[in-house]
Amino acid sequence: MANGTGRSIPHYYLYGDQGADVELDFLHVEPIRDRSGPNDWRIRPHSHPDHMQVLLVKSGGGSIRMEEQVLSIPAPGILVVPAGIVHQIDFNPGTDGFVVTAALGCLKAASASDARLAHASERPAVYPLEGTGVSIPAVMETFEWMHREFIWSAPGRRTAIMAQFMRVLVVVLRLNVSHDDPGIAAPDRDYDLLVRYRGLLEEHFRNERSLAFYAGDLAVTQARLNAACKARAGKTASDLLYERIVIEAKRYLVYTESSVAQVAHLTGFDDPAYFNRFFTQRVGLSPGAFRKQALHHDS
């Protein structure tokens, strides 16, 4: 299989829809067989610009290609696919396990108390569970519990899912520490630049709108930064900046009682009217209308 170019490899967003806004900063859990079985147990080459994945392979196996490396899938085993990594999976028929697809915002929230959790999740890896000292029954239970909470609508569902996701990240961290070489080649310079740019966005997106600032900090030209973002995320550097601002605004609108003017200030806008236009242009609803719709959906 040829790896292809960034132009020919699909960028899949949550549920494959770039415009989807369902649980934008949350995660999705499904059995491996749900998506792979109907597709002859093959996941064709693609990447997730805004989501990372952790897979538990309980039984079966197969092979996974991440970037230029092809590795056998151990069973039981854990696969870690960071955001932006091009990958293809060929499962053995009947392979059993779970796929957790987590938005980068969800990963950030879950790893807030320990930066090592996020760092371990940024390393593409294939880890066998046998002989690692990690409790295999506990790992199985964690994924099964997370899936059970995901498909139910019981009180405290979101909190329960996040608790299990944090347990998954701890497992990934411990496997990462115990494996010096997970067998995956280092990503290319485009990927490295995108990861560093996202890190800068987290620090400065509220107060810094100039691409010249970010490019300067990264010691590249704006054209080079844009090329890397397009190749690895399918978006321009400005798109990623504005998208991060919108995500933060949505969080304030949904999860706090701050007024629209206060949300404008919290996301770095001096003029609430300009924030209103900025948000409406990119979301298709005014901030107030978005809040009403989101609260109605959750009620």
From TrEMBL:
<dbReference type="InterPro" id="IPR014710">
    <property type="entry name" value="RmlC-like_jellyroll"/>
</dbReference>
<protein>
    <submittedName>
        <fullName>Helix-turn-helix domain-containing protein</fullName>
    </submittedName>
</protein>
<feature type="domain" description="HTH araC/xylS-type">
    <location>
        <begin position="195"/>
        <end position="293"/>
    </location>
</feature>
<dbReference type="GO" id="GO:0003700">
    <property type="term" value="F:DNA-binding transcription factor activity"/>
</dbReference>
<dbReference type="Pfam" id="PF02311">
    <property type="entry name" value="AraC_binding"/>
</dbReference>
<keyword id="KW-0805">Transcription regulation</keyword>
<dbReference type="InterPro" id="IPR047264">
    <property type="entry name" value="Cupin_HpaA-like_N"/>
</dbReference>
<dbReference type="InterPro" id="IPR003313">
    <property type="entry name" value="AraC-bd"/>
</dbReference>
<dbReference type="InterPro" id="IPR037923">
    <property type="entry name" value="HTH-like"/>
</dbReference>
<keyword id="KW-0238">DNA-binding</keyword>
<dbReference type="InterPro" id="IPR009057">
    <property type="entry name" value="Homeodomain-like_sf"/>
</dbReference>
<dbReference type="Pfam" id="PF12833">
    <property type="entry name" value="HTH_18"/>
</dbReference>
<keyword id="KW-0804">Transcription</keyword>
<dbReference type="GO" id="GO:0043565">
    <property type="term" value="F:sequence-specific DNA binding"/>
</dbReference>
<dbReference type="InterPro" id="IPR018060">
    <property type="entry name" value="HTH_AraC"/>
</dbReference>
